[in-house]
Amino acid sequence: MSDNGDARYGEPTLVKGNEAICEGAIWGGCRYFFGYPITPQNQIPEYMSHRLPEVGGVFLQGESELASINMVYGASAAGARVMTTSSSPGISLMTEGISYLVASELPAVLVNVTRGGPGLGNIAAAQSDYNQATRMGHGDMPMIVFGPNSVQELYDHTAWAFQLADEARAPVLILADAVLGQMMEPMRPRIDDHPPAPDKPWATNGCKGREPNVVNSLYADHDDMETVNLRVRQRYAEASKRCLRWAEHQTDDAELLLVAYGTSARVCETVVTRLREAGTKAGLLRPVTLRPFASERIGELAEQARRVVVVEMNMGQMVDDVRLAVNGRCPVDFTGRTGGNIPSVEEILTAINEHSPVAG
Amino acid sequence: MAEAQVVFTPPESLSDTLMHYCPGCTHGSLHRLVAEIIDELGVRESTVGICPVGCAVYAYNYFEVDMIEAAHGRAPAVATGVKRVRDDCTVFTYQGDGDLASIGMGEIVHAAARNEAITVVFVNNGVFGMTQGQMAPTTLIGQKASTAPAGRRPEHEGFPVRVVEMLNALEGPTYLARSSMASPRWIRDTKKKLRNAFKAQTEHHGFGLVEVLSSCPTWWGMTPKEALDWMESTVVDYYPIEEFRALPEGDTEGE
Ligand SMILES: Cc1ncc(C[n+]2csc(CCOP(=O)(O)OP(=O)(O)O)c2C)c(N)n1
Ligand code: SF4
Ligand SMILES: [Mg+2]
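A: This is the predicted complex of the input protein with thiamine diphosphate.
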């Protein structure tokens, strides 16, 4: 979204990923933050606790993730731009509340700075919450999920998420990881004004001059619940058209197509270079939104590819979405590391070569 | 014949929707008290109510104010979110004993500890009404429930929780009281205490809670009258009716 010639952006400075999330949020109009500490995202609540009061906002540390997501629910119902951030086990605790946000048609921005799991796991970077993020929550609910791969994208995605959430009247989730959160990179902040928030005539903030509003997710009548689900899905579909993003690297003539997002996509860029040096026509497609997913484009590229290899920091989650997108056009293989490990360039090359008619 | 005169009107803050509560259930009268107080304080148009998951889940159909339906037990957190955004609003939660004292114990304790400027109407009927009469944290020793068929045994299910006394150990809260819906006398007392709990918010920017002893004739297996009598004869022995923390000097209305 940012490039050097874009007048909406200021001069680059060196920024840490977790702080980029905060500044992106502030630019996006976020004035309320409720959250519970968990590594590796603690810099976010710490930063927000001093930054939000500077812009007339409120930071409050919730007593748990359960409380925090429900404080978000209340603040959103009252019409505010609000966010919470957490990491894997904390997101598990928030999941009921996220489902309530969807059903009650409430916007909010959520960030998962993913750590190794399952269980308490560890605080290393992982992509093991892909399925949780993209299949989030009980009930028939969609979820917009971003998968940034740089400090700049952490900033841009978070900044944009508030507008998108308001338009879709739905929560938007940014799926980051411990490496992205902790690393420092040059980042260009927005220097223009963020677009005005849409009116929220549905907000529950006192019924002066109108009939009382109700924010609710209880629909005892099946047909009523179906109507709401269809309405939510319709808004999600419209928002999806606007927000679907992916990035391509040397895909024009790619016979070996790598698909990876976030941190593992950074590793895969080097893998593509190495494969090209060895004479293999390799390319990389990086989903930028994880839901909606670039299925159509992956399908197109699979027409020319002889093989697709999906690389993840887990035991194979996004690969299912890629297989659906490829739909049998060519073989789809997977390689990855789990438990908080990042697959190295060598490991990925070895995996590709071990069972590859293309690179082998 | 003398011209008809209007001598009694329903509160503006209460809708005329037919309530779904069982015959003899005290939820309905308690709604009315809350609505009267909102009217009397003149805050209807700036009030946001949070309903629980429990028999009062449909309270959003009964109060003529902005309403939010919260996840089970999380009403104090939702109320906190609203209040931190709109400090000018009067925010109340209406919660049962399963909602507040079981699944939502964390949220109520911390809202009270923060002296969050909200009002909590806590309905203690000693049972999970909505889900058909299971044991609540407030179920009395010996009291039967669908998940305690032999009656609550302290050695197995532990002792009932006295929520107000427990919250009274905290420095934070501005107003804490227990009242009862067992008879007109106690209903009048409940109204006074509820008004104090609202004033804790509107005049002292603090946390106010009233634990209201209520009846659930359906799952207690009693007639409405028997249920009220049992509250008077037995329930109050364990749950004393008292104002545990009064409003700051000279601003309290209690019996
Ligand atoms: C997360 C979750 N767990 C359990 C339930 C089921 N449930 C609904 S109401 C309720 C208990 C309500 O009891 P109480 O709060 O005492 O309210 P009452 O009906 O007695 O007024 C339970 C367990 C739920 N809706 N959500
Ligand atoms: S089940 Fe009990 S609490 Fe619920 S409406 Fe009936 S009497 Fe009232
Ligand atoms: Mg109950």
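The pocket of thiamine diphosphate (ligand 1) is lined by residues B 52-56, 72, 96-99, 123, 125, 127-131, 136 (CB under 6 Å). The radius of gyration of chain A is 21 Å.
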